[in-house]
Amino acid sequence: MTATGSTEVFGTENAPPPWVLVPWPGAMVAVAAVGIMVVASIAAWPEMAVEVVTREAGGRHGESVANRGVTAAAMPAVLLGLTVLLSVVLRADHELLKRTPVGLDRSPERARRMFSWTLMGLSVVLVALHLGLLSLHTGTAFPLEQAVAAAVGILLACLGVATPLVAPGGRVTGRLERFRAAQSKLYRGAGGFLVIAGIATAVVAAFEPGVAMMVAVASVAVAFLAVALTAFRASRKSPE
Question: Pick from 71, 73, 75, 180: most CB atoms within 10 A?
Fold first, then answer.
């Protein structure tokens, strides 16, 4: 009896909080990225100017100034906040939708993997942005535009891997069910398209970062618009 009671207490104490569903391994990548940013901030701190002007005064706006303390801490804090937020959102999404028709047959594990890939891509973008912001304070030559555009390409590729996991589940009927079923088949193709577009974005970023960003935005719009329009057309067809 004592052993059983101890086991129950041990299991309860070690169970994850009911309001958290951590998107591993994306969270591990995020923590590693935070570590990289913290180390970079510490290394750059002695050389960082106390303040830098990020935008000159003009027209109706005043001068914009960035403090080195804010610059050193902002991106790591943002990434940690995103990791915590996504963990809470995952749990809330599961708890709120699991008893609805939309939530039936939805796998929390698929959602976890989707958020994990998204967090990996965001980690790369924030590291690139952080290093670029540090360079503004130190005066070090850093290809900020190219680095961020290439990081966006990596994010896009990660989103492409995650896209098939976005395919809606649930149990609905009629036209809505045909729309849902059609989307499920199309998301895999859209994901592959985004992976290719992400690689292309990262390559183009080395030469034309502005063009690379336009490629990324256009690719996302084309992929999901194609899915929506094709699924809508399929939903209008009468079932055989």
Answer: 75
Burial environment of residue 7 by CB neighbours within 10 A (0 to 12, 13 to 18, 19 or more)? exposed
Question: What is the C-alpha to C-alpha distance for residues 5 and 185, in angstroms, rounded to an integer?
Answer: 49
Residues of the chain with pLDDT under 50: 1-17, 19, 172
**Residues 148-181 pLDDT 10s:** 999 999 999 999 998 887 765 555 455 655 666 6
Contact 218, 154 (CB under 8 A): no
Contacts of 168 (CB under 8 A, 6+ apart): 102, 180, 183, 184
Task: List the beta bridge partners of residue 67.
Answer: 51
Task: Give per-residue pLDDT as tens, 48-63.
Answer: 888 777 666 666 665 6
Q: Which residues contact 197 (CB under 8 A, 6 or more apart)?
A: 156, 160, 215, 216, 219, 223
The amino acid at residue 216 is: A
Domain boundary assignment for the chain: 18-52+64-142, 143-240
Residue written as token pair 């590729």: 157
What does the angle CA 79 – CA 85 – CA 91 come to, to the nearest 5 degrees?
140
d(CA 33, CA 40): 11
